């Protein structure tokens, strides 16, 4: 059965510890790693019923052509020479996401503005070193961080995170809705289903899809052979088997197939069924490698006839991945300016508050939790200070009048050498929250409302239980310092405020709906230093009393709400 999984929970993409790096860019997976992936996929699949249309189509045995080559499509981007060990990101982000997104939007992939920066993703998944990555982790990053447009990223660094809210915000518009997968040696009809996907993607597409897989390629130049046999697509190179014993793990892209290709494995001159047909593969080693960086891979290498250690494809398993892109419009974003010397110790949480300051919802923000390795915020030898954009749209609530962000350092488990004393202690590395604000895009990208956070402490706390909630848009203005005020409720319509400010301060007052939409502006001007009194007539007789309204007072980026 063909599977598409919608990514709908943090548990789906729990981090997998990968190891045994090599020079080709894919981390070798153990059986334990593969079992973790399988367990997460199975759990996800039980929650998904989004593919009924495609399942029915597959049940009807869709007729497909005997070849397809999507690498010749206008949606397929130009061949690249990947930066060092970034092959999995080059395949999944640059080739596949660029192709799929531009196919969805009918854009030319040959234009730089329509290509996506695979190194942005690589820097998020490689632990801050050129240590390689794995396709499953790349999918996780595409879901949480999105794909950054190439011209927005604008660097070739393989260890450094970009600085600037706008860059992270731009990437979040280009995410994936889910992913497709096969274990090609374990599932009946997997190869035929992969061919169907390459031919017409989700059965209703005029263009086919692309797929990522991983394999051992040795030194890279000994694996392919010249091919002069029959074909529909005319390529002159073939890889009948890959390197053995996980030598040089690498990620590649399937762009099509050709049923006419034949490789005589037993050299008997007979066209045996298990010798016919091959996928069309695209590499990321530059256009001079292979046949314009393309070659054939017989279907047999994906089946259970060829083990991974005897020339078959795979990395711990024969997992094949595809993706489903989507355009995403963030509703709520955090702009955070952080200082830290060990970014993978950071944990983020966000929540929504009601008019009384009670918590409505709360969740971990998986986008940046324990990410990036034991390095400063920018990366190896980089700066400790970094501005990032964090998506918290999942905590958006129409009845909320406030949101908060909670930032913590990781708590580590300790034990004495004699194991007589065990307990928790804070991580040695600590950081600071230098600035924060919330941006509300519920009315679209062009006119976001930004609320400057009232930071009650600049240090990141050691423990979650003692971490302060950094109030974003329900801050009480009466702090006894630069600004203070008291208000007096005169009657149903009049509210009088007595302000005392030590510096000239911008004051805005207005009536808002519970969704945050401005209904009536009451004041927009400046308060001079000293004591000043303002009375606002809220005009209740003109309001629809069946709805909830809020009087919002804004003084120099500090905000208070009064429920009417």
In short:
The protein is built from 8 helices and 27 strands.
Reconstruct the topology from this structure.
Elements: E1 4-6, H1 31-46, H2 52-59, E2 67-69, H3 87-105, H4 118-125, H5 135-144, H6 150-153, H7 165-171, E3 174-183, H8 190-200, E4 211-216, E5 225-226, E6 237-238, E7 249-262, E8 276-282, E9 294-298, E10 319-327, E11 332-340, E12 346-353, E13 359-364, E14 385-391, E15 402-409, E16 411-415, E17 422-426, E18 431-440, E19 449-452, E20 470-471, E21 483-489, E22 494-501, E23 505-513, E24 518-527, E25 530-537, E26 549-555, E27 558-563
Antiparallel strand pairs: 1-3, 2-7, 3-10, 4-7, 5-6, 7-8, 8-9, 11-14, 11-18, 12-13, 12-15, 15-20, 16-17, 18-19, 21-22, 22-25, 23-24, 23-26, 26-27
Helix pairs in contact: 3-4, 3-5, 4-5
Unreliable stretches: 1-23, 42-61, 411-429, 456-490
Number of strands: 27
Q: What distance separates the N and C termini?
A: 56 Å
- What CATH architecture of the largest domain do you see? Alpha-Beta Complex
The value of Rg in angstroms is 28 Å
Give the overall shape.
elongated
Largest sheet: 5 strands, antiparallel
- Count helical runs: 8
Within CATH, the superfamily of the largest domain carries the name Cysteine proteinases
How much of the sequence is in beta strands? 25-35%
Oligomeric description of these chains:
single chain
Portion of residues within helices: 10-25%
Name of the top-level CATH class of the largest domain: Alpha Beta
Task: Please give a structural write-up.
This protein is of the alpha+beta class and 564 residues long. The chain has three domains: 4-14 and 63-326, Cathepsin B, Chain A (Alpha-Beta Complex), CATH 3.90.70; 329-471; 483-563, Immunoglobulin-like (Sandwich), CATH 2.60.40. It has eight helices and 27 strands. It has helices spanning 31-46, 52-59, 87-105, 118-125, 135-144, 150-153, 165-171, 190-200; strands at 4-6, 67-69, 174-183, 211-216, 225-226, 237-238, 249-262, 276-282, 294-298, 319-327, 332-340, 346-353, 359-364, 385-391, 402-409, 411-415, 422-426, 431-440, 449-452, 470-471, 483-489, 494-501, 505-513, 518-527, 530-537, 549-555, 558-563. The strands form eight sheets. Strands 2, 4, 7, 8 and 9 form a five-stranded antiparallel β-sheet that branches. It has a four-stranded antiparallel β-sheet with strand order 14-11-18-19. A four-stranded antiparallel β-sheet has the order 13-12-15-20, with no helix packed on it. A hairpin with a 6-residue loop joins strand 16 and strand 17 (422-426). The model is unreliable at 1-23, 42-61, 411-429 and 456-490 (pLDDT under 50).
């Amino acid at each position: 059965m063909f599977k598409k999984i919608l990514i709908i929970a943090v548990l789906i993409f729990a981090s997998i510890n990968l190891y045994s790096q090599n020079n080709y860019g894919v981390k070798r997976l153990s059986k334990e790693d593969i079992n973790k992936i399988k367990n997460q996929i199975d759990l996800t699949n039980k929650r998904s019923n989004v593919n009924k249309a495609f399942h029915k189509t597959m049940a009807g045995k869709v007729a497909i052509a005997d070849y397809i080559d999507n690498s010749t499509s206008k949606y397929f981007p130009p061949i690249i020479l990947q930066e060092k060990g970034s092959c999995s990101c080059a395949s999944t982000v640059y080739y596949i996401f660029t192709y799929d997104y531009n196919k969805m939007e009918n854009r030319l992939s040959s234009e730089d503005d329509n290509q996506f920066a695979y190194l942005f993703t690589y820097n998020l998944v490689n632990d801050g070193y050129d240590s390689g990555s794995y396709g499953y982790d790349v999918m996780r990053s595409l879901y949480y961080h999105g794909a950054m447009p190439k011209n927005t990223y604008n660097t070739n660094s393989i260890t450094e995170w970009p600085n600037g809210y706008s860059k992270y915000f731009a990437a979040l518009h280009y995410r994936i809705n889910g992913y497709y997968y096969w274990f090609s040696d374990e599932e009946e009809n997997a190869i035929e289903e992969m061919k169907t996907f390459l031919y017409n993607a989700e059965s209703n597409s005029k263009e086919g899809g692309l797929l990522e897989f991983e394999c051992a390629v040795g030194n890279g130049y000994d694996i392919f052979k010249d091919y002069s046999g029959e074909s529909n697509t005319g390529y002159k190179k073939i890889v009948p088997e890959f390197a053995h014993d996980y030598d040089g793990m690498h990620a590649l892209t399937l762009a099509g197939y050709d049923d006419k290709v034949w490789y005589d494995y037993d050299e008997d001159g007979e066209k045996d069924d298990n010798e016919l047909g091959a996928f069309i593969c695209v590499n990321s080693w530059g256009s001079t490698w292979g046949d314009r960086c393309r070659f054939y891979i017989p279907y047999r290498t994906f089946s259970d006839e060829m083990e991974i250690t005897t020339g078959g494809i795979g990395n711990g398993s024969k997992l094949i991945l595809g993706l489903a892109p989507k355009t995403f419009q963030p509703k709520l974003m955090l702009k955070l300016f952080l200082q830290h010397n060990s970014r993978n110790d950071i944990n983020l949480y966000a929540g929504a508050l009601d008019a009384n300051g009670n918590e409505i919802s709360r969740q971990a923000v998986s986008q940046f939790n324990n990410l990036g390795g034991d390095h400063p915020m920018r990366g190896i030898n980089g700066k400790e200070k970094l501005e990032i954009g964090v998506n918290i749209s999942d905590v958006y609530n129409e009845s909320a009048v406030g949101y908060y962000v909670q930032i913590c350092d990781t708590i580590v488990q300790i034990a004495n050498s004699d194991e007589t004393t065990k307990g928790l202690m804070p991580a040695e590395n600590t950081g600071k929250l230098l600035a924060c604000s919330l941006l509300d895009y519920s009315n679209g990208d062009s006119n976001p409302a930004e609320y400057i956070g009232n930071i009650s402490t600049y240090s990141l706390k050691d423990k979650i239980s003692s971490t302060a909630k950094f109030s974003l848009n329900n801050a009480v203005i009466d702090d006894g310092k630069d600004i203070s005020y008291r208000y007096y409720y005169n009657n149903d319509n009049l509210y009088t405020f007595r302000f005392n400010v030590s510096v000239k301060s911008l004051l805005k007052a207005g009536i808002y709906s519970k969704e945050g939409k401005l209904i009536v502006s009451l004041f927009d001007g400046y308060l001079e230093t000293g004591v000043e009194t303002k009375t606002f007539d809220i005009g209740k007789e003109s309001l629809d009393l069946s709805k909830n309204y809020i009087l919002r007072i804004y003084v120099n980026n500090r905000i208070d709400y009064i429920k009417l």
